[in-house]
Amino acid sequence: MLALKSLILIAFLAYEASCLANLEEVFAWKELSFAWPNEETKNAAIKNGEYVPAHNLPLGLDRWKNKLFVTVPRWKSGVAASLGYVSLDEPINKTASVIPYPNWEANTLPKGDAKLEGDNHIVSVFRVAVDSCDRLWVLDTGLADILGDPKVLGSPAILIYDLNTDQLLKRYNLKHEDLKQDSFFANIIIDVDKNKCEEAFAYIPDLGGYGIVVYSLKDDDSWRFKHNYFHFDPLHGDFNVGGVNFQWTDGVFGLALGTPDQQGFRTVFFHPLASLNEFSVNSAVLRNKTLTSDPHIYYEFKLEGFKGDKSQTSASVFDQKSNTLFLTQLNKDGIACWNPKKALEPENVALFVSDKEKLIFTNDIKIDSDRNLWILSDKMPQFIYHELDGNQVNYRILKVKVDDAIAGTTCVG
C-alpha cells in the first residue's frame, strides 16, 4: 500500500511539473518600468515623487492583437501611469517597459488642487476588458494613493476606447444611486454580440458594497442589483499567500460569461473573493432594469456548488469551445478549471497548475482570441502588508494554450 501511494505521488508531481512546463513566462519584472519620453523626464518624475518604482504593481491584463494591456492601480503614490500596454511583437523583451495608454497625458494626475479636465483622463484602474468589437473598456475608480493619503479625484467611471484608432468613444460616470458608502469597483466584464456592438452591457461587481452594477451602452444608463450571494463568507476570509497571513471581507468579485443561448443570453458565473462557493444568474435578469426592485428575482440566482477547501478565487474566465471555467486559486498559488456540465464538487475542480514562486497571488486571468490563457501574478499581499524585494522577480505574466491546460483533467468532456 505504501509503494502504491508513493507511485501515485510521483505520478501527480510529474503531471504537475509537465503542466507547469507548458506555462510560458512571457514577462517577468523585479520592478515595473515605463516607456518615458526621455531619461530627463523619468529622472525628474523620480526626484519629485511622481514616479516611485517600488510602488508600481501590475494587477490586471487583457490582450488585443499585438498589445497586452496592463493596469497599475494607484495603491500608493508615485504610480507613473495606471493604464498601459506592452508589445507582443517579436522578439519579446521579458522586462519590457509599459507604454501608457492611450498616452502619457491621459495618465497624468493634476498637480496641487488642480482639477481633472475633459473626459480622456485616467486616475486608477484595476482591470480592463477587450470586447469582440475591438474596444477597450476601462473602469476608473477615481481613487489615488489608496493605501497612503487617499484622494478622490473623480467619480467611478467607464471609459470605452476604439482600439483601431486609440480614440475615446465614451465616458460614463456611474450614478449616485449605483454607489454605496463602502463601494469599491475592481472588475468589469463585457457582454456583447460582435454583430450588435451598440447593444453591449457591462457588469461591474462591487466588492465593498456587495452589489453588481449593470451599464447599457445603447440606453446609456446603469442600475444596481443586490443579493445575499454577493456578500463574503465570514468563515472563509482568512488567507495565507506567499508567507503573508491576512483577512479580507471582499464580496462579489470575479464574473465570467458562459456560452450564449438561442436568445443571446448567457449564464453569468460569479463568486465573492472571500468564499469557497460559485454562483450564477442568467444575463436576461441583469439586463432588465425593472427587475432590480422585484423581490422574486432572488430565486433566479443559483448556487452552482462548492469549489473545495482553500479555493478562494479572484478572477475567472470562461472558454466557450471547451466549455471550461478557469478560476484563480489564491491560497493554492495556482489556477483551477471546472466544466459546468459536471456538478460543482471538489473532485470536479482540477488544479492544473500550481507554483509557490511563479504563481504567488494569481491576480488576473484572461483568454484571448487565439485561446491562450494569460495569467498575471504579482505578490500583492507582500506589496500591501510588507514590501517587495527589488532584487527578486515580483511580477510575472505567463500564458498557456487552453487545450494544453485542461488536457488530462476532469475539465475535458
From TrEMBL:
Primary residence: secreted
Transmembrane segments: none
Family of the protein in this entry: Belongs to the major royal jelly protein family.
Organism: Ceutorhynchus assimilis
Name recorded for this polypeptide: Protein yellow
UniProt keyword annotation of Secreted present: yes
Signal found in the keyword field: yes
UniProt superkingdom: Eukaryota
InterPro entries found in the cross-reference section: 6-blade_b-propeller_TolB-like (IPR011042), MRJP/yellow-related (IPR017996)
Signal peptide (UniProt feature, chain positions): 1-21
Subcellular location: Secreted
One protein family per Pfam: MRJP
Alphabetical keyword list: Secreted, Signal
GO cellular component, one term: extracellular region
